[in-house]
Amino acid sequence: MPDMSDAPLRYRPHHFLCSLGFQGKGYSDAFTANMARIVEDRLRAPGGDDVEIEVVAATDEICAPCPKRRGTRCTSQDKIAALDTRHADALGLTVGTRLTWGDAKRRIAANVPPGALSQLCAGCQWLELGLCEAAVIELHESA
Ligand code: SF4
């Protein structure tokens, strides 16, 4: 039996940047707790840069407990699909792409300059908080 912890995370394209910017806020307590288990306990834990992630086209492991999820879709499907398209184009991601979290951060640093989120993430309710922009700036400063 394979160890499920070795299975790659499944991420839709825009969740790479959301994971970079995550600061414990989300759509519900269950959503936030699940995202914290993935982002804080895996990606930001020692060895997190080696965690493998596979790009998917529908709801993923971040979406699983979201109150806006309806099966494999979202109550804001058009907005979410547009986010995914822009983020996939920016990061060079296609469905089935497998990369590590460390590789994902290098792609973000190479392709997402400070200020780019205002266009990339247009329509996202979290954008105006500035947490994701701060994370992008920090990534560039540490690169
Ligand atoms: S602004 Fe929204 S879509 Fe963009 S990285 Fe942050 S949470 Fe994700």
Describe this structure in words.
It is a single chain. This protein has 143 residues and is mainly alpha-helical. The relative contact order is 0.19. It has helices at residues 15-21, 29-43, 77-91, 101-111, 117-120, 131-142, and strands at residues 9-11, 52-55, 69-70, 73-74, 98-100. The strands form 2 sheets. A 3-stranded mixed beta sheet has the order 1-2-5. Strands 3-4 form a two-stranded antiparallel ribbon. The protein is globular, with a radius of gyration of 14 Å. It has one domain. The chain has 6 helices and 5 strands. Helix 1 (15-21) crosses helix 6 (131-142). Helix content is 45%, strand content 10%. Bound molecules: iron/sulfur cluster.
Determine Rg (CA atoms, Å).
14 Å
User: How much strand content do the residues show?
Assistant: 5-15%
Number of helices: 6
Largest sheet at a glance?
3 strands, mixed
- Please give the share of residues in helix: 40-55%
Ligand species: iron/sulfur cluster
Oligomer designation: single chain
Beta strand count: 5
Taking pLDDT < 50 over at least 5 consecutive residues as the criterion, the unreliable ranges are none
Instruction: Give the strand order, joined by hyphens, for the main sheet.
Output: 1-2-5
| Mean pLDDT reading | 95
**Cα distance, first to last residue?**
38 Å
What string gives the helices and strands in order?
EHHEEEHEHHH
- The global form is globular
Total domain modules = 1
Which structural class do you get from the secondary structure elements?
mainly alpha
Topology at a glance:
Layout lengths: L8 E3 L3 H7 L7 H15 L8 E4 L13 E2 L2 E2 L2 H15 L6 E3 H11 L5 H4 L10 H12 L1
Parallel strand pairs: 1-2
Antiparallel strand pairs: 2-5, 3-4
The structure holds iron/sulfur cluster (SF4).
Iron/sulfur cluster binds next to helix 1.
